[in-house]
Design brief:
Blueprint: H1 3-14, E1 30-34, E2 37-39, E3 44-48, H2 56-59, E4 63-69, E5 73-74, H3 77-84, E6 92-95, E7 100-104, E8 107-110, E9 117-123
Parallel strand pairs: 1-4, 2-5, 4-9
Antiparallel strand pairs: 2-3, 3-6, 7-8
Length: 127
Amino acid sequence: MSELVEEFVRNAEAAGFRVHRAPFDAPAAAAVSEASYALASTGSVVLLASPDEPRAASLLPDVHVSIVREESILPGLAELFACVGSDLPSALAIVTGPSTSGDIEQRHMVGIHGPREVHIVLTESGG
């Protein structure tokens, strides 16, 4: 790794960033998606698949960041399905925390079927 890259990483981490590294031939270590909705009742983000928001972007990387606009927050599932109506996309994912599984040797594991780490960036409603 070049000295310039090492300097960047060192200074970015000192400034408070968490730097994720991925090998050149590996899938992206992190991805960002804009959540279509969020659910107040569960703290979940709702990702609707589309050409601009492919399903794999939120499932394959180890780290996923969801951008949530305040005006997209709904009370719960009933309001979500009222908004979506019968015009369902090819995939609708309701994400409530990192991927977890207990079906491998009956041990609780994180990140088996999706991101190990999930983040939300909450943006204020426009004026």
